[in-house]
Structure formats: C-alpha cells, structure tokens
Amino acid sequence: AIAAMALFAGLFIASWGFYFKTYSRPEQRLQTAADVLIYSNIGMIVINVVAINVSAMVSLGLSIFSLLASLALTFRLESNPDRPLTNPIALPEELFTVLKPLILLCSFIFIITINSGLMYQVVTPAFAHYQFLVSYYWAIPYIAALLIIRNLPEKTDRAYILYIAMIMIGLSYILFMQLDRSVVSYLIIDTLMLGAFGVCDLFWWSILGNVLDYSDNPAQILGVGLAMNVLGIFLGDIIGSQISSTKGGHVQASVIALVVIFTVMIILPLLNTQLTKLLKSHAFLIQFARMPEKERTKTLANFKNNQQLTARETEVVKLLLRGYTYKAISEALFISENTMKYHIKNIYQKLNVKSKMELIKLFADSENKLIL
Question: Residue 168 burial (CB < 10 Å; 0-12/13-18/19+)?
Fold first, then answer.
C-alpha cells in the first residue's frame, strides 16, 4: 500500500508540471514555486501536529480530505486552455544544450538532499524528546525563508543567497556536533538548517520551472528533478540509519554533511555557467551572465578604455566572465598558465578587485549604471 501511494504521489506531482508550465509565466514561476512549497508545508505542519498531539486517525482524515479537495480542484482545471499564459520557445537544435545543465542541476539536487535524509535520521530524532515543540516549529523556518525570498523586491540580487544557504547548512551541522540537546540548541540548529533547505528547494523548483519551456513533456522534466530529490533523501536516510546508533554518530553525520556541502560548492559555479547559457534571466543566477552580448561588449569596451586594459587582458576578462577556468583560458588563447596568471594579476590590480566574484559584481554594477 505504501509503495502504491508513493508511486501515485510521484505521478501526481510530476503531472502538475503541465499546469506549472501552462498557467504561470516564466517570470512568475519563482513566486508560484514558493507558494506551492509554502502552502504544502503549512498543510504538512497541521497534519503532523494533529497526528502527534491529537489523534492519528484524525490526522488520516485530514489527509484524505486534502486529497479529495485536490481531486475536486483538479477537475476544474482546463487541460487545453484557450489562452495559455506562455508562448512556445524554440527548442535548441542540439539536445545537449538542454541536457548538460539539466544533468548538473539533477546532480546538485541529488547531492544536497542527502543532507535532508541525514536530518530526518540523525538531527530530528536527537530532539525528539521535545515532542510538542518539534511538531510545531520544525518547518516554520523553511516557510519563513520562502516568504522572505518570495517577497524580496525584483531588483534584489538573489544570486548569492544560495551560497549563504550552503554556509547555513554547514554551520548548523557544526553546531549539531558542538551544542547540547537543549531547547535553545534545537531552535538555533533547526532555524539555520530548515531555512537553508527552503532556499535550496526554491532554487531548484524555480529553475526546473523555467526549464519546462524547453520541453514538450514538462512532466518528464519535473519528474526527473523530483526523482533526484527523493533519491538523495533516500540515500541520506540509509546513511543516517546506519550511523545513528553508533557511538559518535552525530559527529559522523555532521562530517558527511560538510563533505556534501563542499561538493555542492564545487558544482555551483559550473551549474551557474551552464544554466545562464540556457536561461537568460533568473533571480538565482549571477547577474552579469544575463547581460545581452551587445551590452557585455559595450561594458568591456568601456573598461578597456577607462582602466587601460590591453587587448589580451580584455580577452581574458571576457572568457573569465563566461565561466572559463584559468586552464581553459590559457588553452583557448594559446598562452602558458604562468602568462595567464600574470594577466590575471594585472587585471585585478587595474580593476581593484581580489577575486573572480568581485570581478563579476563589478561588471554587473557597471551594467546597471549603463542602463540608468
């Protein structure tokens, strides 16, 4: 019965991708994804609180009522709307154009959700003796993070929020190793951890929402993403269940979680580079990568004149901003890595920056000034 319910739940959510694509414009999908995650988690909190503090049968009744209400609403949806809110997008000639960023995104989802599985098996049970508090508070930071990001002004740069979320997850597991099992410790750890998971979930839900336009079968795209989510949690559950009963299991879980974070931090720049080639506009992607080629060329020309960049240094900057590594740039320009490092040093000195991220931000700020 459980397997059947899981199968049909997966089919239902994946099929919702059709309506996600048809009834929400690309620029609205971040808000739509946030709304879905917020309301579903509110429902989960209510059902969970009733199950723990009132009655499991009453909770089951609420679940069945929710399913019946969903069924009634589903019948009211049009399968072929007269006026779809989105226009068809010309699919790339090469499948690899969509496939490569999708594979990287699925890898990100799978790896980061391992930490969610660890949380279910190791972190949450460690505070299970605060039954009343855990049942109410558990998902509140998750919802709060979604509400904050959803309601940020459009001009707010969300690109770095994802990196902050990674830091929050790492910090929460470090604190889980060090702190006691008091109420204050639970509030600190759960707030950091669940708030960060809310950011991560909104990131990949909204990215998948925008990728739907590049597929004739949106259920397939959303289904693959959800499958990676479940698979990551499942693997984290298995790892967590194996180490939770061992001595020092909380330390082992935290170390594994930190390894996951470091792995994801390596993937993120590559993922950003690939996604910006496919999605020209998204709140979570680095801003400069969304600049049109004409504006990018104009900005580079201004810096070349104002900051006295040489022609070779301008070429290096252009490739850096496209996401090339130092080695890839040296190969593309047929120069040695030592020469490459020499150019990088001169560029950073002339532009008064210390890292690639500062360089990207500098060009993004320059773009805004040009627009204004």
Answer: buried
